[in-house]
Amino acid sequence: MFQDPKRYQAKHYYVTAAGADLVEVLDPQAGERILDLGCGTGQLSAQIAADGAEVVGIDLSAEMVEAARDQFPALSFVVGDAGDFSFAEPFDAVFSNAALHWVKPPEAALVCLAACLGPGGRFVAELGGARNVATIRRGLIDQLAARGFYPQSPWYFPSLGEYAQLVEQAGLRVAYASHFPRPTPLAGESGLRDWLEMFAGVLTEGVPPSMREELFAAVEDAVRPALYSDGVWRADYWRLRVVAYKE
Ligand code: BEZ
Fold first, then answer.
1. Within a domain: residue 226?
2. 24 part of a folded domain
3. Domain range holding 51?
4. pTM of the model
5. Which tens digits make up the pLDDT trace of 43-72?
6. Could you read off the pLDDT of 176-214 as tens digits, one per residue?
7. Tag placement on the chain: N or C end, fewer CB within 10 Å?
8. Per-residue exposure over 3-28, b if at least 16 CB sit within 10 Å of its own CB, e if not
9. Which residues line the pocket of ligand 1, CB cutoff 6 A?
10. In angstroms, what is the span from residue 199 Cα to ligand 1's centroid?
11. What whole-number distance in Å separates Cα of residue 186 and Cα of residue 154?
């Protein structure tokens, strides 16, 4: 998914910043065993562990896991697929921030995480929900189509009702769910382009290097009226937040 941990941390720190709030919802307790699903470079894993929880971080990207191990050698990080994993020991909680919208089919992740929760264990997650980055997606897809590219979306952005139903089908009781906008400032004049390069690589990988500059400029022009004001790019994020329990 992401293979450049330094760049991810330097330019996309807002992903972790927004997740800090979700750690408060998780309310990790000393001695709890907690899985951070899609842990990236491990910043939130470290916050979860700060008060004494035992944290295991899992991420598909070996580069991200290596960076997490370098920064937080006392914590445990493993490379693994959020749609196909298991652990021998149960967890008290599974936490996931800004990762599950990359996992298809979504049921696979829910089945795996439900199976690794112990009785009464909780699932606390935030992912992109319906409408997420809709303006950016529209702008990019239109500009790609105008140049003869028709890639598949790598993302899953469900509505609240759809996701709550999947969580229930995985055997968890949904205690809380919320779908809300979070317009997110992107750093600097190149903020949108940085976002596209970091996160939309799967959509643009067929585009030859010679066309990329002109493509990104065209996307910026298309979405500027909606997403750029007062000298700041803002991504039109919509979040889906869920808290659910294993009975
Ligand atoms: C998100 O966090 O909503 C997101 C991140 C990267 C690509 C698409 C969505």
1. no
2. yes
3. 5-132+155-186+236-246
4. 0.93
5. 999 999 999 999 999 999 999 999 999 999
6. 999 999 999 999 999 999 999 999 999 999 999 999 999
7. C
8. ebbeebbebbebbbebbeebbeebeb
9. 98, 101, 128, 132-133, 155, 199, 237
10. 7
11. 21
